[in-house]
């Protein structure tokens, strides 16, 4: 088996590249992808018949160059202004819901937003009755602060 790999080093580098891409699926910050790029460059070096030590140098060199030059542009595209999408509970801010249990002045009640029930407090000083539409203005742990919509 070892002899097979020494005669087919491109397979070794392909396995490294695929492993890096699989690991990248868990991180999503394009750091491990740079090592996959280095491994792909080493595959090409293997095809032209350079010795293993030079393939390792190609891997290291292109991995570092990818980290320095390719990763920043990928991150910039990923986090371009205006393209950030709120997720999880942060996506609730600005949503409209319906009061399902009255929100008393100075107390709390419940609202239904997209099928989920949330404990709510009012940012206003008056009570909000059942059936009224409210808008979420902030979120503190599992309690939303609402105003009449």
Automatic annotation (TrEMBL):
Keywords: Membrane, Transmembrane, Transmembrane helix. One of its GO terms (cellular component) is plasma membrane. It is a multi-pass membrane protein. The keyword Oxidoreductase does not apply. The chain crosses the membrane at residues 6-23, 30-47, 53-70. Residues 89-147 form the NfeD-like C-terminal domain. It holds the Pfam family NfeD. It is found in: Membrane. Its main location: membrane. This is Nodulation efficiency protein D. It comes from Hoylesella oralis ATCC 33269.
């Amino acid at each position: 088996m070892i002899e097979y790999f020494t005669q087919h080093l491109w397979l070794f580098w392909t396995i490294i590249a695929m492993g890096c891409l699989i690991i990248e699926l868990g991180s999503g910050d394009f750091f491990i992808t740079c090592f996959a790029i280095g491994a792909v460059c080493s595959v090409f070096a293997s095809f032209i018949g350079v010795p293993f030590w030079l393939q390792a140098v190609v891997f290291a060199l292109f991995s570092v160059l990818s980290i320095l030059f390719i990763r920043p542009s990928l991150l910039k595209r990923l986090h371009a202004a205006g393209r950030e999408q709120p997720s999880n509970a942060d996506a609730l801010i600005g949503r409209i819901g319906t009061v399902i249990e009255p929100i008393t002045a100075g107390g709390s009640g419940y609202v239904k937003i997209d099928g989920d029930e949330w404990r709510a407090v009012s940012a206003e000083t008056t009570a909000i009755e059942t059936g009224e539409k409210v808008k979420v203005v902030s979120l503190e742990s599992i309690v939303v602060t609402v105003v009449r919509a």
